[in-house]
Amino acid sequence: GLQAGYDKEISARMTGPLPGAAAVVELSKGLQGRFGEVLTRERRRRRELEKVKEEFRRLDEDLQKRAAERTSSPAQATVEVATDRGGEVEVEFTYRIRGAGWVPTYEARLAGDGRKLELAIFATIRQGTGEDWKGVQVEITNARSGRSLALAQYGGPRLIDSALPALQVAERQMKSKGGLTPGIAQNQYLPAPSAAVVEVAAANFAMDAAEAQPLEEARGIAATWALEGLKDIPADNEAHRFRILGRDQEPALALVATPRLDPTVHRVARFPVPAGIPLFPGAAVVHYAGTQRVGQTALEMPLPGAPFQFGFGPYRGVRVELRQVEALKEAVGTFTKDIQWTLRERMEVSNDTAEAVQVELLDREVKASSDKVRITPLPEATPGREASVPGVRAWTLTVEPRGKGTVTLGAQIRIPAGCVLTGADDLHLPR
Predict the structure, then answer these.
(1) Of 282, 326, 279, 294, which Cα lies nearest the Cα of 120?
(2) Which CATH number fits domain 318-427: 2.60.40, 3.30.160, 2.20.200, 3.40.50?
């Protein structure tokens, strides 16, 4: 009886009248009004932020303009001339200023029939010295006055010593210091940063078709060129491009695909290392197919004996695909248990055009880095050849019109049980 009375009292306290429809509508209107106010304030803040950004951009442009228009401090040069007799004297005054420089850029123009490729080098000049250059003779050089010409010399013999492995050294330190926490800190290898590609909007530059004349050349150190005619270069810190020289090449066209990295068939032009044109690794190269700009890369020097190779975009009508046919993981061995993967893959090329094509397929060669890993090619694998890059295999397929070509890949990879396979992430093996 006491428990029932207590439950009824608690139930009475917990129950209450439900809100009516009018109260719900009123609450909804209130929430809607508050929500509208919040949205209005948010829109107002966004507009104010856009105004601040626009004002900041305008001030930044104004500062850059003022920096380009700044005037240098006046300077005076006095020249004393002593001659035996009177007459006219021609004095050449040379001075160096900061705020000006040039970078090399290239154009690779492939003719429509693919029989000729012109490789031209340009000088992209920027200057913000505060004085406009009007009607000046421009000479450019890749000389660096700060280059060190000191010869490398040995300072003595090479000293070779022996020491305990790092693991044993750490164990001895652990025994001598009881308060140390077990474990060895390993040094981490950090790769060197790759050279950034210089972005050049070639279409916005004014071009001069005349070629520059080389003035002097110190082989292996520097070269200087004089641009043809007089030039006007304002102090606006903008890029002004002038042609130095160009050379025609007779390329060999090919279709190349690396399906494990990119499922695209690319058209490439290969030609020997050009003579008579300076080469600056890392400089921007703008690629043109006829009159159409197709892209941009950084100039890379090929391996010794290998040709230059420039890409000119995907080849329409030819497709490539890498398919995994089988990836099997199993435990093998009679006396010792090993882990073995059996991998079968297939590279397929489809030709949707009305003429036969020849496609070069590339894939990296899988090699063992230690004797604990055993790699055995499968007998049905299509034999390939060594490519120009060490460690890369190449296959050449001739695909008929509306036809397909196939390259079969396959290998068995075997490691001791308890070990972990590394370096095979792109093979997508089962774990």
Answers:
(1) 279
(2) 2.60.40
Nearest by Cα to 118 from 289, 282, 256, 264: 289
Contact 86, 112 (CB under 8 A): no
Q: What does the pLDDT look like over 168-219, one tens digit per residue?
A: 556 666 555 444 333 333 333 333 333 333 333 333 334 444 566 655 444 4
How, if at all, do strands 222-226 and 139-141 pair?
Answer: antiparallel
Q: Where in the chain is the domain with CATH 2.60.40?
A: 318-427
Sign of CA dihedral 270, 271, 272, 273: negative
Six-digit token pair at 6?
């207590």
Q: Strand (E) positions, 290-337?
A: 292-298, 308-314, 318-332
Q: Which of 122, 136, 123 is nearest to 235 (CA)?
A: 136
C-beta of residue 269 within 8 angstroms of C-beta of residue 288: no
- pTM, two decimal places: 0.60
Strands 240-249, 133-136: pairing kind: unpaired
Residue where the block lists tokens 């303009």: 65
